[in-house]
Amino acid sequence: MAGNQREMHRREKRAKRDKKNRMIIWIIIALIVVVLAVMKICEVNINSVKNHFTDENGNFTLTNGVVEDNFPYNLDASGNVVLKPVNNKLGVLTPGSFSVLNSSDAEVEYTFEHGYSNPIISTCGIYSLIYDQGAKKFRLDTTSANVYESETKNSVICADVAKNGTAVYAENAGSNKSDICVISKSLEEKLRYSVSYGYVIAVAINDSADKIAFAAVNSENAQLKTKLYTMNISGGEIKGEFEIGAGNIIDLEYSGRGLVVLGDNFAGRVSNQKKYEEILKTGTINTVCYTYTPSGDLVLVYNDYDHSTDNKLVRIKNSSVKKSIDVTGNVKAVSASSGLVSVLTNSEIITYNLSNGTQKEKSKTDDSVKTICRMGSDVFIHRQSLIDRNEAE
């Protein structure tokens, strides 16, 4: 008899538990139906909601959805806009201003009007170095304040900044010559070096601010020749001097212990300031666009000739090509995070996994999108006078 009572008691508890669970399930279903109905009425893209709660690896997270999204963000210009990651925030350079936006909600955390006629930006860590190319002014800012604004003796050609705020710049010294100058964030001059070979076209400084590199061009027998130099800042000693072939250098970037040398038709690397090797040989590629991962790997889009729509996307780590992906279309821009790379064409934005080359996302677009910037799991796009988040299909 006692056993029957215990059994009846267990059945009653089970029935109550099942009833409670069914009620919870029906409440959840009702809430989902209400939310979907509201989204339908308000024309909310469900993919944007899904992407808002996933990180760049596709894992579910609640941290992305706890703030109000104020994108799209209105710009003061529609052309010549540059998007740059600055210490996990979005840097936006326009012909008239520079702003640092919170990448989660588009809140302006820092902004100023620069007044430069041809502003160029270089970033590293929390620092943004903006200079007026062809003029004499330049300034250094963090993500929240100005460090300094200064003026050179001669017009600035190119510049770069290190993680501690040390900057290197090249200025026109006249007679087809240039001066290289390295200054600390307190404007202390750490190095000044006159380049006698020719006109400096690119400079770079490493993260620890103890090494620089620069490239200079000169005319010999009616042909342009390029030389690449590496130097230790302490003592101003030239460590390496390399004559580059027929290609033109378009970017220098320190990565790890080496220096990436990117040309219009080649890619190479300098190791230990002294050894240069070509990774993609001169004349074998036509550089379309490029970017770098947060760790400094070069991500390059190239094809065989101008206006070709058959492109290769490669990631170059140290001295080797790690991955090659075929991309069809007129590629306008490329941007990479640590694990993903996004490519902008005239008709779509495609995102790939950098490790294995698999396609992760794709969305349709048009010519109104001028450039993109990938940060973590988000892709920010510049369209006309707006910055917006991209929504994958």
Give me the secondary-structure topology.
Layout: H1 2-42, H2 46-52, E1 73-74, E2 82-86, E3 89-93, E4 97-101, E5 108-113, E6 119-124, E7 127-132, E8 137-141, E9 146-151, E10 156-161, E11 167-174, E12 177-183, E13 189-195, E14 199-205, E15 211-220, E16 223-232, E17 237-244, E18 249-255, E19 258-263, E20 267-271, E21 275-280, E22 286-292, E23 298-303, E24 310-317, E25 320-328, E26 331-336, E27 340-345, E28 348-353, E29 359-364, E30 369-375, E31 378-383, E32 386-389
Antiparallel strand pairs: 1-32, 2-3, 3-4, 4-5, 6-7, 7-8, 8-9, 10-11, 11-12, 12-13, 14-15, 15-16, 16-17, 18-19, 19-20, 20-21, 22-23, 23-24, 24-25, 26-27, 27-28, 28-29, 30-31, 31-32
Query: What percent of residues are in strands?
Result: over 45%
Count of discrete alpha- or pi-helical segments spanning 4 or more residues:
2
Order of adjacent strands in the largest pleated sheet = 1-32-31-30
Count of strand segments: 32
Categorize the overall geometry.
Answer: globular
> Any idea what the radius of gyration is?
26 Å
Helix percentage: 10-25%
Distance between the termini: 64 Å
Poorly predicted sequence stretches spanning 5 or more consecutive residues: 42-57, 62-67
Mean pLDDT over the full residue set? 87
Biggest sheet details: 4 strands, antiparallel
Which structural class do the helices and strands define? mainly beta
